[in-house]
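Example record

The entry below shows one chain as it appears in the dataset: sequence first, then structure tokens.
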Amino acid sequence: MIAALVRYATPPSSLAGRLSVQSLLFAAGEGAFLAGSAVFFKFVVGLTLAEVGLGLTIAAVASFCVAVPMGKLVDRFGPKRMWSLSATVQSALFLAWPFVDSFPEYVALAVAMEVAGTLGGTAHGAYVIDVLPPAERVESRAYMYSALNVGFSLGAFLSGGAIAFGTDVLRWSPVLTAVLFVVNAAAILRLPDATHDVRGPEPRAKPEGIPAIRNRSWIAVTFFTGVLWTNQVLLHTVIPLWLVAETDAPRVLVAVLFATNTVMCIVLPRLTSRGIHDVDTALRAVRISTCFFVLTCLITLATHETVGWVTIAMFFLGHVVLTVAELFLSASGWTFEAELMDPRRRGDYQGVSELGNTLGRFWAPAVYGLLAMHWGAFGWLTIAAIVTVAAVGLHSAAHSGRRFLERNVPADVLADARVGGPHTEEVATAGPPSIVEPEAPLPESTGDLHR
């Protein structure tokens, strides 16, 4: 039993372990600031809740506008370099937060943070798909997802300590985040080069293949995936509001539910990702995720009529079910990224995916809040219907996306990039992660990616 648990907790490979360290460092730094950001903005910067919300909206619009150009930068200069650059820029920007004392300065810095973060997210996604051998991509991403949640939990703990020590300590808390980000930036550069990072003697050429923005199937896949990811709106916004306003459950239960979600997202990703390795198995995971999403709506709706311990048990069950939906959706998304992107333009596809995902979920907080809080049973059933339609649309879009690649990408490129391709490499020997590990050998190319 203990040996099995140790094997489960061991990274699938040395490379996966090193990538998980990057996930933990990023999440610890990000969480150390974000968990206390509301208090920071109010008591350190002196902003109102409305000003904070407006600034975040402006920053989100900026991120949306630069998503595609950032993807092109990643393809042009290489994902590892752009990932490290993003972490370095964000580290410098975090050092500016203690000196912000007005709304215009807050907006300017928030926009800059979002733009740098968009570059980092796009580069990270392209790098991970590029550098991991196809056979271990999903399991490695699952392990990294666990590390990410560990990091966010650690960051939230650090943030809580800063808040407890008062405003003077809280003002300088972004310095800790800046240090973690600059350490992460240095550690990223010690990772092996991905295929797109390797520079030849000739000048870099424009990537081959059709631009992602012209692949309507990929846009549809990311849009419908974004709709399904509105499970996070239920998790973080709608269900807590429903618990407080419409049921007799104690408010402290909200914290217990969030803790349950966090623990499950640390422990279970590798388990729920098993057997998901191509478009068909990813779509099976989408169906499972959608069923659990719908079941969450029905369970939460039922709490309106229950009382006492029954209500508490129903909320706990609903949160467990919703977290399972999140985990299966995560695994399917990692597979779609690997199977439905042109391997020669992964940065471009990552940038376009930001557009599609944003379009699929930006409307959800307002719409779901209205449906659940004002339309009652009909509203919850409408939410369930929305995600069911999205799952159906995702099935059609995914199959269409595969046909698009088969028509427009050379067969040998697709074969090498797929899990079952003829040149799939052996998974590297498992081992503990280290940010100071010597330069590891680069896995063989997972695609014939010429610049």
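Notes for this example: Residues 420-451 have pLDDT under 50 and may be disordered. The chain is about 75% helix and 0% strand.
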